[in-house]
Amino acid sequence: MLLSLHKNIHALKCQDQFSSISLSKLQNYTSPHEVRSLHAQILKTQHSEDLSLLSRLAHRYLLCHCLGDALQVFAQMKREKDPHVFLWNEFVKWYSRNGFYIESMEFYRCLSLSKTPPNEFTFTFILPACAGSRSLFHGRSIHAQIILRNMDSNLFVATALIDMYGKCGDSLSSRQVFDELRQPTTASFNALISGYVTNGEFNEAMWVFNQMLISRERMDAMTMASILHACASLGALQQGRWIHELIERENIEKNEYVGAALINMYAKCGSIADSLKVFDEINRRDLVLWTSIICGLGSHGLAYEAERIFLSMIRTGIKPDTITFVGILCGFSHVGLVEKGWEYYKLMSSYGMEYSLEHCNCMVDMLGRAGKLEEAENFVREMDMKPDAGIWGALLNACKIYKDVERAERVVEEVLTLDSDNAGWTIALSIHKIGLLFKVDIIWIFY
Predict the structure, then answer these.
(1) Angle of helix 322-335 relative to helix 287-299, nearest 10 degrees?
(2) What is the pLDDT of residues 243-290, one digit of tens each?
(3) What secondary structure does DSSP assign to 214-260, as a single string?
(4) Which whole-number Å values give the CA distances from 343 to 97, 308, 325, 346, 351, in the listed order?
(5) Rounded to an integer, what distance in angstroms lies between the CA atom of residue 403 and that of residue 444?
(6) Disulfide engineering: 327 pairs with which of 156, 298, 361, 381, CB 3.0-4.6 Å?
(7) Domain coordinates in residue numbering, the chain
(8) Mean pLDDT, to the nearest integer, of 65-87?
(9) Could you report the per-residue pLDDT of 146-205, keeping only the tens digit for each?
């Protein structure tokens, strides 16, 4: 009897020791092979019922992006007992952060039907999934559940709600949640400002930023990047300069997002020289920064300067993306450099990129400005994708410049097949004809 008891105690000690060693190992394992090897040891040593160990194992699988293995461990645990909310949260978070928003919401639904109640972390993980999928319906439903569980006063949950409503286009609800906060933080201010900027409510974003200044709340790089976008969209150069000075004065990190926002703001406000100055002052340049200055130069018609910087970027080993090519094609379009435009348009295929409507729009605009209307029309009709009203509009504008009424009539017919209710295009064509008849310059109206 005593011998049997001694053996049992010894076995339990060995199990505890193994569990402790296994948990310690798991924290250091970073590869799927290592985690799977430990999983095999757990199965061999009959520790497959240790829920704490299995929970950590599933978590480690998720960190290694081994979703299938993690789900197997989760299913094994669920057969014994509902897993701890920690593990539910890890799955909700993993799906959400990896762009699987529907799966994240489905996992949350399963949690809400289980015996395990969600906690405040659950809501901070599921709300970004609603924001990412732009699912306002699900976001409001979860908000109601948050209120029922008396978690709406939690600062992290409230900030996630502000962010969700902003990204889903409901600025009013976002502001209501913000106004209910006793002491807004940097994160909650940032979420509200970012939401206003996303929804094109730039004056409101500026007002909230001023309130942030008055409250003396700490500002960070995200604050500055968002408010600089608002300045750029408003053409508010003076405010943009003041914010730039504030960044320097407060020693706020000038990361790639702030740097790109400064370059973009100065370019859109007409001060491309300041854009170049900001670019030259930043030593560590990533694709975002290179693309920002190329797009800025392109929008100002400085095609050769944009090309020079593009080639410098290539020499540093950074590969362009589709937005980079939009910027440089825009530059060639502005000055009618057709051969250069074709060269860079074809270069995209060597990077394995697919053409978008934006690239095609640049090409049509470029050909139209150069007076190559027939080539532009053939380009549009031979596109792999269906041209939208913007592309037809670029061609129509070229028809107006070169007084090509016959081609303009064909273009309007195509536009009306896209949007038969858009009578404005017919009116535009009539105005075009009147302008030709009386040989006067008139405003070209688009609807």
Answers:
(1) 20
(2) 999 999 999 988 889 999 999 999 999 999 999 999 999 988 999 999
(3) HTT----HHHHHHHHHHHHHHT-HHHHHHHHHHHHHTT----HHHHH
(4) 38, 15, 11, 5, 13
(5) 12
(6) 298
(7) 52-182, 184-282, 285-354, 358-447
(8) 88
(9) 999 999 999 999 999 999 999 999 999 999 999 999 999 999 999 999 999 999 999 999
The whole-number pLDDT of residue 82 equals 83
Residue 41: CB partners within 8 Å, gap ≥ 6?
22
Query: Helix, strand, coil: what percent of the chain each, to 5?
Result: 75, 0, 25
Fold of 184-282: 1.25.40
Tokens of 310: 């593009």
Whole-angstrom distance, CA of residue 244 vs CA of residue 418:
44
Q: Is it the case that residue 445 has pLDDT exceeding 50?
A: no
Cα angle 110, 112, 118; round to 5: 120
As a whole number of angstroms, the distance between CA 77 and CA 206 comes to 50
Q: Which residue has the tokens 């909650």?
A: 188
Contact 276, 290 (CB under 8 A): no
| The residue type at 162 | I
The CATH fold of domain 52-182: 1.25.40
Residue 368 and residue 355: Cα distance in Å, rounded? 19
Angstrom distance (rounded) from CA 141 to CA 108: 12
Mean pLDDT of 312-323: 96
Q: Which residue has the tokens 């694709």?
A: 287
Phi, psi of 185 (to 5 degrees): -105, 175
> Is 391 in a helix, a strand, or coil?
helix
CA–CA gap between residue 305 and residue 360 (Å, rounded): 22
pLDDT of 434 higher than 90: no
Residue 21 is predicted with a pLDDT of 47
Say what the pLDDT of residue 38 is. Answer: 76
Please give the Cα distance from 50 to 39 (Å, whole number): 12
- Which backbone phi and psi does 63 adopt, to 5 degrees? -65, -30
Same fold, 52-182 and 358-447: yes
Specify whether domain 358-447 bears CATH 3.30.460: no
What's the chain's Rg over C-alpha atoms? 29
Reported as a single tens digit per residue, the pLDDT across 407-421 is 888 888 887 777 555
